[in-house]
Amino acid sequence: MIKVGIIGSTGYAGQELVRLLTQHKNAEIVWYGSRSYIDKKYYEVFQNMFQIVDDTCLDDNMDELASKVDVIFTATPQGLCSSLVSEEVLSKVKIIDLSADFRIKDIERYEEWYGIKHQSAEFIEEAVYGLCEINREDVKSARLIANPGCYPTCSTLSIYPMAKEGFIDMNTIIIDAKSGTSGAGRGAKVNNLYCEVNENIKAYGVATHRHTPEIEDQLSYASGEDVVINFTPHLVPMNRGILVTAYASLKKDVTYEEVKAIYDSYYKEEKFVRVLEEGVCPETRWVEGSNYVDVNFKIDPRTKRIIMMGAMDNLVKGAAGQAVQNMNLMFGEKESEGLELVPMFP
User: Is the pLDDT of residue 100 over 80?
Assistant: First the structure.
């Protein structure tokens, strides 16, 4: 049985970790960390856990926690994990960090985009970027995982086969993405109030969103060249879901069959990436509550461009589900354990 501790268990991603891990056959949560709700019953914070989780929320003490569990999930704001992790901690326990602290290998770039100083730069090179479909073998032997961001997960998986095979001009990539409001976290913010979000859609972080360098890094690794993109996210009035529509110029004329064969060759063995049938566009409603990513593409011969699309649940595959997938690989479990959830509809 894998003993689990969660730091930040009362945020949206933390609560999703609890939901998934309570259904995991070989995992036991022994520590529900939350600075905001110390000594409060977990089900009093999330009533959906009534008579399911009776534990009390504890402080986020990583040093104490490291000696009591096998793995720690940190579902916390940027900067916290890097301030807590140490060689002593990592000698005792594996860490899966859901923040951006270890996703970007260039420290100066991280500090520029996130506006904070990195406090444990010595571990950045060691940290494995936990996009399982691409870095599976490295994940298995890791002791520190940088769990990917939600937008980067959907964007990378949608574009990766074309980037890896050299089918597209990497300097022409434009990504238009949309997310539900849970992606902004559970903290109280005026811009996320019901009256501010309902019956509205807006772009935000235009040309400045902090997931931009993460996406650029992953596409650079895939293509073998330095990639600079336009990435524009939008907030839509729904709880969950991410939809990515990415555009790029093709380097040569290709047929649907040629491109479909490439996508199938990359994802036919992947449990959680579904390449849709011709003409079917990904929709968030068909992945909600699940760890699936639906991807597809459309070739536009008129403009000699390809439109690459993806949809997923930002709290599952975009956060907690991917983290559990990483845990399963790290501990030799079946990769899909605790994650075989049929998407919810309606």
Answer: yes
For the chain, which residues make up each domain, given as ranges?
2-126, 151-313
**Helix (DSSP H) and strand (DSSP E) numbers for the chain:** 12, 13
Cis, peptide link before residue 346, omega less than 30° from 0:
yes
Q: Is residue 283 scored above 90 in pLDDT?
A: yes
- Catalytic residue status for 81: no
Catalytic, out of 150, 154, 195, 281: 150
Look at residue 30 and tell me whether its pLDDT is greater than 90. yes
Under 8 Å between Cβ of 12 and 150: no
Tokens of 39: 């000594």
CB 129 within 8 A of CB 218: yes
- Mean pLDDT computed over 27-45: 96
Average pLDDT over residues 300-318: 98
Q: Dump pLDDT digits (tens) for 123-154.
A: 999 999 999 999 999 999 999 999 999 999 99
In contact, 212 and 231? CB cutoff 8 Å? yes
**Domain at 151-313, CATH class:** alpha beta
Separation between Cα atoms, residue 328 and residue 71, nearest integer Å: 11
The pair of three-digit structure tokens given for residue 336, joined into one six-digit string: 């899909």
| Contact present, 144 and 85 (Cβ < 8 Å) | yes
Domain 2-126, what architecture? 3-Layer(aba) Sandwich (3.40)
Residue 13 CA from chain centroid, whole number: 10
